[in-house]
Amino acid sequence: MKFSELTPWRSPRSSALSSVWPFSRGFDADTFESNIDDFMRDFETDFDSSQWLDYGTRAFPSIDVKETPESYSVDAELPGLTAKDVEIEVANNSLYIKGEIKEDPTKEKGYICSERCHGPFSRKISFGDEINMNNIDAQLKDGVLHIELKKQNIEVPKHKSIEIRQ
Question: Which CATH class is domain 63-151?
Answer without folding.
Answer: mainly beta
